[in-house]
UniProtKB/TrEMBL annotation:
Species: Arthrobacter globiformis (strain ATCC 8010 / DSM 20124 / JCM 1332 / NBRC 12137 / NCIMB 8907 / NRRL B-2979 / 168)
Protein name: Putative LuxR family transcriptional regulator
Single biological process term from Gene Ontology: regulation of DNA-templated transcription
SMART domains linked: HTH_LUXR
Organism lineage: Bacteria, Bacillati, Actinomycetota, Actinomycetes, Micrococcales
Entries under Gene3D superfamilies matching the protein: Histidine kinase-like ATPase, C-terminal domain (3.30.565.10), Winged helix-like DNA-binding domain superfamily/Winged helix DNA-binding domain (1.10.10.10)
InterPro entries: HATPase_C_sf, Sig_transdc_resp-reg_C-effctor, Tscrpt_reg_LuxR_C, WH-like_DNA-bd_sf
Amino acid sequence: MSAATDQPIKASTMPVSDLPWPLLHSVAAVADAPLTQIAERLRDALLPYLGSSALVIFTEDCTGRPQKKAGAEEIISRVSIAELDALRATLSDETPWFGEAELAGRPRAALALKHASSQALLVITDPQPADPGHNAELDLVRYLWNLAAKRIQEKVADAPPSYLLESRAASAERIRVTAELTDLHSTTLETLLAALRSSQLDNAVARTTVTDLTAKALVKLRTLSDRTTDLVEEPVAKAFERLREDLRPLTSYSGIEAEFIEPPLNGRALPGEVAHAARAVVRGLVLAMMEQPEVSRIRTQWDCDGENLLINVRDDGRGALAADAPSISRLDRRVQALTGQLRMDVMPGWGADVFVSLPLDLPTRPAGDVAGWNLAARELEVLQHLAAGNRNRTIASAMGISENTVKFHVRNLFKKLDVGSRTEAIALAHNHGLR
């Protein structure tokens, strides 16, 4: 044995009792948090070091629930995607930003950080101290945020079937609600424009000023509608390009040639969950194929027939990929979660050929079993009214109760369904056949 290996290994001089156990427990809580609680866990972990009125995460990886929030209700209930998107656009890299931003309808002091790989945004309102600078507290914020952002990416990539279905339903509901609001406000504003442009009205200056303001409001409304649609749909060509970027690090140093057959540029846009699932499935297939011996080339092709995204991944190996392998079974379950199909042809001596079909439209579902929600009879009745599109006043009148009682039932519904808004509750109800 050499002199180097004869040296005894010295143990750490720090007693276990001196370790920062509260902080370590907080780190573990963030790492283990479900998607619905990750904002709350992150805020709890940060509060001993950085006070705040609210914490908001904005991530496009979760198309059904792009915002994850914790803190003051007057902030988390009013902050909008447009405000968060505007703030994110001002951040050039992962450097923390301190300043005043329009959030929840008014300027607020905020700390903002962007995650480089996912472009997710963290916003902490009214941070205390107001500007901690580059000190230990800020380093901790950056560390925990980086951990949370990566966990969100991992959890979305490995999302269970229930999450995928509910997220997709919420996405569809958001499009529907946005379209209705756009039509409503556009009609109102266009009528106002017609009246103000009338030659029968006096005060030309007033007409000109109001006309300009209204025209700008129309443009902003249309922009918000388009932005919301962008969050839940992704052009097929853009989705495929993101796939190529994802796979480049996997194949660059493996010696395996990656061939990509691009989809038609005018193909139908993909729902967010389909785009995410498609990339995850292809990544999984490529990794499984790379583990085989004698694979030198993997070809990936996407196509779109207007109703389905069609995926084909093929290798030139010796056909050693097993259809019942755990990695393939996991991918098959993910495909089935979106009512898709996965078929694999293994040709001994000639490689594996995998075909995946993912429907672009959410299938209609019969009324599902909602007993697991443990809803009281009144709560179920309120949920049915919400699913029908009724507002609180209409629900109160139909049920013979006060609006405050309706609000009480709605709050209970949110807790039992684990949702954060009426839109999500309606989407979940529709997904279980309640209309």
